[in-house]
């Protein structure tokens, strides 16, 4: 039986917790000395020792744990995990039945009732990500539930809770029949090669599915598309399959070249007809400007924070400058797909970055569409900060 301790929270946090706020913030806790071992079940109480909620202790970003239930009598045990995971799978029935999309998020942390835990489905293979030692200490429940309620080919895991919040290097295989990677998954009929046992990344960011579809269906035909911070070239694949005249993929990581060639190849695209550049995106902007290159569509999906030899880039600080760089090489009436996964600012704030970039460039634009996480990445509507993805598709008017 996991041990339980009472944790007193301050008055201002109680109001948010009662409204359903799921994260237990460090500054909310009045008696932090009782928190010794991650994975301890914590009863949150007010100053009169009255019960508020129950959760677990696990350090993650700004929080020291997550609320799991507001019922003092509910045990955090195998049936608890089973009910949450089964309900999450039921909500995604349409995904399980969709033959054109075989990779999606099956369980999305606090959006499905258990913060710090995500489970991604890749055509029968599962990838479980653990975001704190606290939730990892309950892995026997999660793996037991998966064994009981579904047929899978194999389970892989990513531990993302070292002291800097980074992935812990290990053999990620847990159980089942090991995959012969890369395996090919489908997304809206497109093919993507993924490897679930190759470090922190898998080869595809599932949260951008709707954006790739929009690029393919609405914005690619006959266009020259520039895909910056291109990773394995998934946006470039979508563009070519949507009828793009040409794509240029730019990423600093050496392995992006082989990975992008692989993604083109599994879609029967001649990669030699496409342009793949392994270089710093900011250097590429300068190069494109010098050579007077112009693009019809520019995709901007930078990491929240990136460092190269010459540059340090932070979305919270440098996005307006990134927009300016993009404007300089975008055709008149061209499209810029501006995206960020930085959870530390809102969509409203993100749109001020875009506005500033255009203002500084002396240019004008109109917003064509905006979006956030797709529906398998379930998030609580009352607390938009957990819906971290922000995408604005806009047209450069002059």
UniProtKB/TrEMBL annotation:
It comes from the Bacteria. Residues 5-90 form the PUA domain. GO terms for molecular function: methyltransferase activity. GO terms for biological process: methylation. Pfam families: Methyltrans_SAM (PF10672), PUA_3 (PF17785). Signal peptide: none annotated. Keywords: Methyltransferase, RNA-binding, rRNA processing, S-adenosyl-L-methionine, Transferase. This is Class I SAM-dependent rRNA methyltransferase. It comes from Sporosarcina quadrami. The lineage of its organism: Bacteria, Bacillati, Bacillota, Bacilli, Bacillales.
């Amino acid at each position: 039986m996991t041990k339980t301790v009472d944790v007193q929270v301050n008055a201002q946090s109680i109001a948010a917790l009662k409204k359903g706020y799921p994260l237990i913030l460090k500054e909310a806790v009045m008696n932090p000395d009782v928190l010794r071992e991650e994975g301890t079940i914590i009863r949150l109480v007010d100053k009169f020792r009255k019960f508020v909620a129950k959760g677990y202790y696990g350090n993650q970003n700004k929080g020291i744990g997550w609320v799991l239930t507001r019922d003092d009598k509910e045990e955090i045990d195998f049936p608890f995990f089973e009910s949450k995971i089964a309900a999450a799978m039921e909500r995604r029935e349409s995904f399980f039945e969709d033959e054109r999309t075989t990779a999606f998020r099956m369980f999305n942390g606090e959006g499905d009732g258990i913060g710090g835990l995500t489970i991604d489905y890749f055509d029968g293979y599962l990838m479980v990500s653990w975001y704190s030692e606290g939730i990892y200490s309950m892995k026997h429940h999660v793996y037991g539930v998966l064994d009981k309620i579904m047929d899978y080919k194999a389970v892989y895991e990513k531990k993302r809770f070292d002291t800097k919040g980074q992935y812990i290097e290990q053999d990620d295989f847990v159980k089942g029949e090991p995959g012969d990677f890369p395996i090919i998954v489908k997304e809206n009929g497109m093919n993507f090669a993924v490897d679930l046992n190759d470090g922190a990344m898998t080869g595809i960011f599932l949260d951008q599915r709707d954006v790739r579809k929009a690029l393919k269906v609405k914005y690619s035909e006959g266009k020259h598309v520039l895909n910056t911070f291109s990773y394995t070239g998934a946006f470039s694949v979508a563009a070519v399959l949507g009828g793009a005249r040409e794509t240029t993929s730019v990423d600093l990581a050496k392995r992006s070249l082989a990975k992008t060639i692989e993604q083109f190849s599994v879609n029967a695209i001649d990669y030699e007809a496409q342009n793949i550049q392994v270089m710093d995106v900011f250097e590429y902007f300068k190069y494109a400007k010098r050579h007077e290159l112009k693009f019809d569509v520019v995709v901007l999906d930078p990491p929240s924070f990136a460092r190269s030899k010459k540059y340090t880039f932070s979305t919270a600080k440098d996005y307006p400058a990134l927009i300016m760089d993009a404007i300089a090489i975008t055709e008149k009436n061209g499209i810029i797909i501006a995206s960020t996964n930085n959870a530390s600012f809102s969509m409203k704030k993100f749109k001020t970055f875009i506005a500033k970039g255009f203002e500084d460039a002396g240019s004008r634009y109109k917003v064509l569409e905006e979006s956030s996480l797709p529906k398998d990445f379930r998030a609580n509507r009352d607390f938009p900060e957990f819906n971290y993805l922000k995408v604005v598709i806009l047209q450069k008017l002059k």
